[in-house]
Amino acid sequence: MLSDAQEELKKRVLKILDLLEKEHPDARIALKFSNPLELLVATILAAQCTDERVNQVTRSLFKKYRSAEDYARADLATLEHDIKPTGFYRKKAQRLKEVCQILVEKFNSEVPRTMEDLLSLPGVARKTANIVLSNAYGVNEGIIVDTHVLRLAKRLGLTQSKTREKIERDLMEIVPREKWGRFADLLIFHGRRVCNARKPKCEICVLKDLCPSRATFST
DNA sequence: CTCCCGATAT
DNA sequence: ATATCAGGAG
Questions:
Q1: What is the mean pLDDT of residues A188-192?
Q2: Are residues A133 and A164 in the same domain?
Q3: Is residue A61 located within the same domain as residue A132?
Q4: Is residue A115 classed exposed, middle or buried when 0-12, 13-18 and 19+ CB atoms within 10 A define those classes?
Q5: Which of A92, A97, A127, A208 is catalytic?
Q6: What is the rounded average pLDDT of the residues A76-82?
Q7: Between 20 and 30 A from A31 (CA), which of A50, A85, A120, A187?
Q8: What is the mean pLDDT of residues A181-204?
Q9: Is the CB of A217 within 7 Å of strand B?
């Protein structure tokens, strides 16, 4: 069912994509990785942690742990120490080890390529799965709804929904499927550089003329 | 909803 | 002091 309001939202999305593409042509995932396993590990570590800190940790981590087997047989206390600066380190170490044990046992030591298999892994929900599918395998199963996409989608008036899963469905209806990956990259990049959580820089924002939240934030 | 974790910005 | 950082589970 396509209401007029939804058609308007689709137009607004295209405008946003166009403006952000011109503003941030180099927008790209900030996590550093060289294969699907490294991306999965980096994304798990990225929960409530800046990508910069994750990259700092993974630079040495990826030299020490090169395969799913390496994590699967790691000493838990050692792994905790190796990822400590990313925060939540006990839970993250436990999940990394458990996830990699499952990869070894059930997935031939490889990172799954389907949403269903990824979601079966402990500590992997839709946000993490979408990042891996999109950035490691070029698959658009859904739209990454992380803290930035969540915040910007609300501020830009693209959704009124509360939960991540509803917001993802809302966005999937108004963003062209071939742009799902690009949409997330651009919103995340813009969210980090301009539309911050704390103090959004509305005065330099290329979206200010179409942003319903602009007045709220202007100084 | 809380908990998990700690560094940093405001 | 408090909110936030490419969240997910109980």
A1: 97
A2: no
A3: yes
A4: middle
A5: A127
A6: 97
A7: A120
A8: 96
A9: no
